[in-house]
Specification:
Elements: H1 2-17, H2 34-55, H3 64-90, H4 109-127, H5 129-137, H6 146-165, H7 171-194, H8 205-228, H9 236-239, H10 242-267
Helix pairs in contact: 2-5, 2-6, 3-4, 3-7, 4-6, 7-8, 8-10
GO biological process, one term: sphingolipid biosynthetic process
Keywords: Fatty acid biosynthesis, Fatty acid metabolism, Lipid biosynthesis, Lipid metabolism, Membrane, Transferase, Transmembrane, Transmembrane helix
EC number: 2.3.1.199
Length: about 270
């Protein structure tokens, strides 16, 4: 038994820890996947157990100024990622192939900057978790759905994995689509934080969900092309899980979209 445990620890260290990109390893939480897992566990415990219990006999917090500051921050950090990828990748087709962008693991200034940009994407997905925390504190429990919690938790882990093992390259295209959708989403949240009555008057609210659905289709197809390309050296072990994940999360969002918009329209 002791030998088996020792072998498991050795395997964990040699496969998981030693393969972390040494350029990102000094950065906060990048030393081990245990750190993002602890973040997710703490998040899940708060939004499912501790938060609702804490708010049980309390009035909902309004958090108006907090929400304005938070939404502005989220727009800025996601906008930063979009700007970086567009300027450094999308507008440079001579260097980056949209169908197979390999990772530069060198200590070249641009390569390290790209790794840091990927790290910023991961941090932005960590800050996304506060969205749910604020929902709990404002007693918006109906919004704290399985879809919401699963998606936020999963994106933290996805962000960490790509930052740790493939900070840049092909994943940039996935990230830029995701970050752009978040910019639009948090801009909507910012408007409703200023004027809550906008929730029922902004005509493009449903289109945010449609953008999210389109995002999952784009990401899944893009990942599939990479996996099927035998000449692309981007780590397929990392990109392949995006295929079933993309399909699953698409189905969850589609179910939400159907119940929220299509069925409601039929009932009306």
């Amino acid at each position: 038994m002791t030998t088996l445990i020792a072998a498991g620890i050795d395997g964990y260290n040699s496969f998981i820890i030693e393969n972390i990109d040494p350029r990102v390893k000094p950065w906060l939480t990048m030393q081990s996947p245990i750190y993002p897992m602890l973040i997710i566990i703490a998040y899940q415990y708060f939004v499912r157990v501790l938060g609702p219990k804490f708010m049980e006999n309390r009035k909902a917090y309004t958090l108006e100024k907090t929400m304005i500051i938070y939404n502005c921050f989220q727009i800025l950090i996601n906008g930063y990622f979009v700007k970086e990828v567009v300027s450094r990748v999308i507008l440079r087709p001579d260097k980056y192939n949209v169908w197979c962008a390999t990772v530069d693991y060198s200590y070249d200034e641009e390569a390290v900057h790209f790794a840091f940009t990927t790290y910023m994407f991961y941090l932005s997905r960590c800050s996304d978790l506060m969205d749910t925390v604020f929902m709990v504190l404002r007693k918006k429990f109906r919004q704290v759905s399985f879809l919401h919690i699963y998606h936020h938790s999963g994106m933290v882990m996805v962000g960490w994995i790509f930052t740790a093992y493939a900070p840049g390259g092909h994943v940039a295209y996935f990230g830029v689509v995701n970050a752009f959708v978040h910019c639009v989403m948090y801009f909507y949240y910012l408007l409703t934080a200023f004027k809550p009555e906008y929730k029922n008057s902004i005509w493009w609210k449903r289109h945010i969900t449609e953008m999210q659905l389109a995002q999952f289709v784009i990401v899944t197809v893009h990942a599939g092309i990479n996996v099927l390309n035998p000449y692309c050296t981007f780590p397929k072990l990392l990109i392949a899980p995006l295929l079933p994940q993309g399909i699953f999360i698409f189905l969850l969002f589609w179910d939400f979209y159907k119940k929220t918009y299509l069925q409601k329209k039929v009932e009306e």
